[in-house]
Every structure is written in C-alpha cells, then in structure tokens.
Amino acid sequence: MTVNRPDAGASDAFSAGTLVAIGAGPKSLSVAAKAKVMADLGLPAPRVVIVDRYGVGGNWLPLGGWTDGRHRLGTSPEKDLGFPYRGTPHRTHAAQINAGMLEYSWMAFLVAHQTYTEWIDRGRPNPHHHVWARYLDWAAAKSGAELHIGTVERVRVVDGGWSVDFRTSDGGLDSVDGDGLLVTGPGSSDEPLLDDPRVLSVAGFWDAVSRRAIPASSRAAVIGGGETAASALDELVRHEVMSISVISPAPTIYTRGESYFENSVFSDPTGWPSLPAAERRDVIRRTDRGVFSVSVQENLLADERIHHLRGRVTAARRVGESVALTLGNPGRSAAEHSFDLVVDATGGRPLWFLDLFDAESVDELELALGGRPDLPRLETAIGHDLAVEGLSQALYLPNLAGFAQGPGFPNLSCLGELSNRVLRSAVDRSAARTGAKR
C-alpha cells in the first residue's frame, strides 16, 4: 500500500467530508487536483482518497490489461484534467480555481519536462498511452493525491456513507470510509466470450502482444466497434494475418465525428438534458460508442485484409481447429462464421462495480431506482451532479452519465466539468449535513 498525504491547504473548518474514489485514472485525478486547488484557496473541499489495484494510470499501461501502452490516445491531450476550464465548484472563485488547474494541465506537464516546444513543432500529436500515464502520475504527485494501492473486494453502506474494503499487495485487508463514493474505470479486461486458447480477451490479446505470441492466422476476427477494438485492430494488422473481420452490430465501421459541432456537445453539456431521448441516443451512437478515431481509420484505410461483418455475436463454439461465431441481425436469419483467431474487444461490463457491493448496498440502490439495478435504470437515474438520484449516500457514476447528462462525462472530453459537478455536490452535501453555510 502506498499513501501520499497532501499538504494541509485548509483548516479543518473548511473540510467537506471525505470522497472515496475507485480507480486512479483521469476522472479521479481531476477531482483530487481541483480539491487541492480549492483547499489551497481556503475554500471548502473534500478529502479525496483514491484506491486502485495498479496505482496511477494503470489502465494506460500494459499492466492494466487494456493496452500495450504504445498506441496513441484517441482524444487530444489538451482535453486534460482541467478542460474545458469553464465554470467552477464554487460560485465566486472561478478565475482562481481555473488558474490553479492550469498548473495541472498537459501544457504544464510538457513545460516541466522541457518537451513543450518539440510537441508544438511536431504538430501537437496525440501522445502514446504510456506518456498519458506519465502525465497522470505527474499530476497525482504534484497534487499530493492520497492513494491506496490495493484491489477493492467489497463496498458497504455505513452510517450514511460508504466503506471500501481492499486487499493490499502484501495480502492484508484494509478499508477507507467516506461520505461519497466515485466509481471510475472499465472494470476487468480478462473475460473472453469463450474459454478457448483461440479466443483472446482484451487483456489476453495485449499479453500475447507483449510476449510476441500472437499466432499466425488465416482468418482473424475482432469483435467490437469502439476504441478498444480499434486499438486491437491497429495492432493486429502489424502481425501475420491473412484476413481480419471486424464484427459489430452497426451497418459499417463509423469514424468518430471530430468537427466543431460534434466536439462542442462533448465539451459543453449545458443543453444536453433538454434533448429528446432518441436524439441523445443517436448522438452517442454516431460520435462515441461503436466508432473508431480518425487516426485509426486513416491507418487502416489502405489495408485490404480488413472487412466488416455486421451482427451481434450470440454464440461461440469450438469446431475442430476453428472457432464458430453465430451472428444475429434483426429481421435476418442467424449466420455462422469460422475463424482461427478471435479477439473479444467489446470492452468492459458497464455494471462491473455492482459485483463489489454487498447485499445491503444493492438493496439501497434498488430502493432508489425503484427496481433491480440494471443499465437502463441507472443511466436514467444519474443527476446533474453525476450521482444516482434518490440515494442518500452520494454515489457518483460518471461512466454511466452519458445519456442523462452529456456524452463527454464517460470519457476524457470534459474532465474539468466533471470535477466541478462532483466537488460542488460534495461541498453542498457536507454543508447540508453540518448545517454550515457556504
């Protein structure tokens, strides 16, 4: 277990409780950095405690199982921990807080490492994943983020708040309590659709890449149409494969929209909740879910080995030396296709964190939702503060906030607005508990 305790930036009188974050990625670090900025200004701010199995930025490194670290970030790095540098968790200190967050910006990171000029002269390229992880680690150290390295095993409701139990690297069991809980990250990447050596999970694929153990293949398939699949495909084309089928339910492989109009919806979610539900779903489908970044599409355009198969995989089985995948499409008969290598790159399970909740926590969540916790209920129950509405204990779920609050919250598109909403909520909830006035 590693713990960094921030320097005292404010007296106990300005404490706004404790926020526990699962996952030491950009969402948690944006909240931790801004809380530090607020505390340094003498403003109410929660103590932010982060728990992560691997440490800072693990999912951007090979050890996290989602990448080999050598592929490029799909989002501009200028959409950093403070972006879009608009608004504030506090009503009267926007300029000071945003100025403070510039100290944690991508540009500040490059200046600190004397690489800013080179990055500009090279045309502002998107960094490799491992470089993005270095940026996150730098920001964590600069903010003095309080970090516990351990594997979360159980989440419990306690006294109007949360208790997070985690297993430390030496095998011991530890816990941290908080008034609010922030859940980030995609969960596990090592669950393939079929337990078979010819079917690789995301983690299995990147492990094989690192060991240079990707087998030669005549017919390979990559299941998924999003950035996880795009990274796997971008790597697979560098290996000895005769043909690659990209399997997704969409009619084709879409390119993520990168014009001002698409980007502005991600950066500024102000009017998002007023859009009809069907239009919100359509925007997310066209610009975020099931799309490849422009850079990956450009890399793949000239490769004649790549083809698209439309359908949703409904079954998988081993047939001799091949794996047979059954594809279903609405209004059409199921079709079976055989491959000798399959990469299941459909991404993580959106509700992975529910496996950690004890029975009482699930019951509390069910009462708040008015039914069994499932994806449709949770997606529609995320309030403006990115927490589940109707739940007395603050449970912030930005990864599920895309439909209700804006498509930028599940990704890297508006980390500054994410931290604004979470911290404003934490401070307001603390004031309500203590009867203090802001």
TrEMBL record:
Gene3D superfamilies: FAD/NAD(P)-binding domain. Belongs to the lysine N(6)-hydroxylase/L-ornithine N(5)-oxygenase family. The gene is mbtG. This is L-lysine N6-monooxygenase MbtG. Pathway: Siderophore biosynthesis; mycobactin biosynthesis. The keyword Flavoprotein applies. Its cofactor is FAD. It catalyses: L-lysine + NADPH + O2 = N(6)-hydroxy-L-lysine + NADP(+) + H2O. It comes from Gordonia cholesterolivorans. Keywords: FAD, Flavoprotein, Monooxygenase, NADP, Oxidoreductase. Its EC number is 1.14.13.59.
